Amino acid sequence: MAIRKALSYSKKVNRPYTRVSKVKSKSYIKVVPPNKVVKYNIGNQRAYVEGKFPFVLSLISDEQLVIKDLAIESARQVLTKNLETKLAGKFYLWVKIHPHHILRNNKAAAGAGADRLSTGMKQSFGIIEGRAARVLGGQELFMVACDSESTVKVAREILGMAKAKLPCRTRVLFDKVEDIAHSPSPVSK
């Protein structure tokens, strides 16, 4: 089965009526699809927590939309591969969005002789097709921390490569953090 185009979902940001319950009979979603995003923290996390990476680049979304987990993973792979080859050990990458949104598709037959099938249930729940992350305008998608200004230039170019993998308009914000000890830690508590 082919992957459905992101255009089918990307601009629909309203929350769908979904329910995952511990009681099987009350659960509308019978099977939750696996998450395609493999890692959320890549690079030298210890150096970031210790405050050795004072330069921070953030990839920010300018639109409110839904991003499929395949697009997030594709952008993460581009970032990871290029950062590892060009800045080995001198960066920390943090994926800030998580695909919790479950995508559904109510399949309807089209073409000759499919009249009875296509008129089916109104507002049918549909079958589960995948996951996506709901992104608000101005929300941070990826964060890259670097150790020097020369690595920031390289990281900015690599973030430009990852922009092509995402279905929204984005911008890169640069920030020099003076006191990283008070910034939120990516390590879950």
Description of the structure:
- The chain has 189 residues and is α+β, with helices and mostly antiparallel strands.
- The protein has a domain at 34-103 and 128-178: Aldehyde Oxidoreductase, domain 3 (Alpha-Beta Complex), CATH 3.90.1170.10.
- It has helices spanning 45-50, 69-86, 115-118, 149-163, and strands spanning 41-43, 55-61, 65-68, 91-95, 101-105, 127-135, 140-146, 170-176.
- Helices cover 23% and strands 25% of the residues.
Task: Please specify the SSE layout and strand pairing.
Layout: E1 41-43, H1 45-50, E2 55-61, E3 65-68, H2 69-86, E4 91-95, E5 101-105, H3 115-118, E6 127-135, E7 140-146, H4 149-163, E8 170-176
Antiparallel strand pairs: 1-4, 2-7, 2-8, 3-6, 4-7, 5-6
> At CATH's second level, what is the architecture of one domain?
Alpha-Beta Complex
Mean pLDDT over the residues: 82
CATH C-level label of one domain: Alpha Beta
Determine the CATH topology of one domain. Aldehyde Oxidoreductase, domain 3
Distance from first to last alpha carbon:
40 Å
**CATH homology superfamily name of one domain:** Ribosomal protein L16/L10
Largest β-sheet summary? 5 strands, antiparallel
SSE series: EHEEHEEHEEHE
| Estimated radius of gyration | 20 Å
